[in-house]
Specification:
6-stranded antiparallel beta sheet, alpha+beta, 6 strands, SH3 type barrels, disordered C terminus
Length: 100
């Protein structure tokens, strides 16, 4: 099943501004914002992500609703498995987003 997962942008990579650190249920991963270049989101914005790419900007209410639907369908664990497969944003990761 194709999953679209809401995530909160918490930081941008100063070297690659189209790469964001996005948090999904406490898990932080790097996500490509390139598909949203015409209306680039930033820290504090919610995005709907799929396979490491932000597909659209969404509201916090839409993010809550999407996670509720995933839980209701029993797909929340599959969604988190997908998120865990994205690029790491751990402190020991040399590609971690740097503070602005």
């Amino acid at each position: 099943m194709c999953l679209a997962i809401p995530g909160l942008i918490v930081d941008l990579d100063v070297r690659l501004p189209r790469i964001a650190v996005v948090e999904v249920s406490g898990v932080r991963r790097r996500v490509d914002l390139g598909l949203l270049a015409d209306d680039m989101p930033g820290p504090g914005d919610w995005v709907l992500i799929h396979v490491g790419f932000a597909m659209s900007r969404i509201s916090a209410a839409e993010a809550d609703e999407q996670m509720r639907l995933l839980r209701m369908l029993g797909e929340d664990e599959s969604a988190m498995d997908e998120v865990r497969g994205y690029g790491s944003a751990q402190a020991d990761d040399p590609g971690e987003a740097q503070p602005r």
